[in-house]
Backbone:
């Protein structure tokens, strides 16, 4: 099995959902596409023929059809989720690959805590943020039903709490969610958190001593703070955010021994300013491991940046703007500026004449 270059460790250890598929079907990762009837219940999926066949395909050193996204990325020279997962966990869990399926237990669970959020970020979407959903409805734009708290994932986590080693928590804003705090307290009080590593993504607006005490009950915590710029640029992209408060909270979390990372979303709103954020992170020795491109709202994809502004994009980010524009950013930006009573040109003067 050591020479199986096509292997992926995730089907043997992980439970996740596919956010690109209506209804959020279960899967070993967020990219996998179920090939048969969709299964949404984690426990049912873990013991399903679909997942057993997926594991067997990998054991046979073949490429499963449902994993085409990762293999396509790799063919284009990009690093895939499969490769990242193998680097992180394949060596540790190599021995479980050849275990009978009946003996396998999930050790990594993704928990989506719903769309409840305190911010209405311009580069977010209506099913991920309750605030964005409300803004779109006020403007008259189409909306999707907000994600609900994943009770099924919580049930699976509690069922296997003795063996689960990793939890990946995403929102909405997780720290804004009372049910999540109740779950974390349960894991602490039952003695399970001490053998778990939790990855949790937050906008950084929440900090208090009780929260820190709760986080420190875990074996390890990786707190991933979403930052899209410095100062007013970040506040413009994420209405309702206070950059100074976020910066102060990051310092407090780090002083308390919490491992803090920064993660950014690349859009036409910030692609000219991300090197400043990179410098900010570098000066503070904060790891900024990877950035995601915004695909929805499609108007904010960096490829839609005006040609004149593309000339100003730093060399390190030019690879994100090489595609031809496909969508009208002007109406999108103008409508949100009108709603928020803001003006992009007051924050980013380079937009003068382009809006």
Residues:
């Amino acid at each position: 099995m050591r020479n199986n270059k096509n292997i992926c460790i995730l089907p043997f250890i992980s439970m996740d959902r596919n956010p690109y598929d209506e209804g959020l079907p279960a899967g070993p990762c967020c990219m996998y596409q179920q090939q048969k009837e969709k299964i949404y219940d984690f426990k049912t999926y873990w013991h399903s023929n679909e997942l057993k066949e997926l594991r067997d395909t990998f054991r046979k050193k073949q490429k499963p059809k449902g994993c085409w996204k990762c293999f396509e990325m790799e063919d284009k020279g990009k690093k895939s989720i499969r490769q990242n997962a193998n680097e992180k966990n394949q060596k540790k869990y190599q021995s479980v690959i050849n275990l009978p399926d009946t003996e396998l237990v999930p050790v990594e669970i993704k928990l989506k805590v719903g769309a409840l959020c305190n911010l209405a970020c311009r580069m977010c979407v209506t099913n991920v943020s309750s605030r964005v959903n409300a803004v779109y409805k006020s403007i008259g734009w189409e909306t999707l039903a907000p994600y609900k708290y994943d009770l099924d994932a919580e049930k699976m986590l509690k069922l296997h709490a003795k063996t689960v080693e990793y939890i990946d928590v995403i929102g909405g804003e997780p720290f804004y969610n009372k049910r999540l705090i109740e779950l974390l307290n349960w894991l602490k009080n039952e003695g399970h958190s001490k053998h778990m590593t939790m990855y949790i993504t937050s906008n950084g607006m929440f900090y208090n001593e009780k929260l820190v005490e709760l986080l420190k009950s875990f074996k390890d915590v990786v707190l991933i703070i979403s930052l899209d710029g410095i100062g007013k640029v970040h506040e413009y992209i994420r209405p309702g955010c206070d950059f100074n408060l976020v910066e102060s909270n990051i310092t407090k979390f780090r002083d308390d021994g919490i491992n803090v990372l920064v993660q950014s979303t690349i859009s036409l709103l910030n692609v000219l300013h991300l090197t400043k954020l990179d410098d900010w992170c570098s000066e503070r020795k904060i790891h900024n491991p990877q950035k995601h491109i915004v695909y929805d709202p499609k108007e904010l994809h960096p490829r839609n940046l005006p040609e004149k502004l593309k000339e100003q994009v730093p060399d390190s980010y030019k690879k994100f703007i090489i595609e031809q524009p496909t969508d009208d950013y002007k109406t999108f930006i103008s409508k949100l500026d009108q709603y928020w009573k803001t003006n992009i040109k007051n924050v980013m003067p380079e937009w003068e004449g382009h809006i």
User: Anything to note?
Assistant: The first strand starts at residue 14 and ends at 17. Strands lie at 14-17, 26-27, 108-112, 166-170, 197-202, 220-226, 259-266, 291-293. The two ends are 56 Å apart (CA to CA).
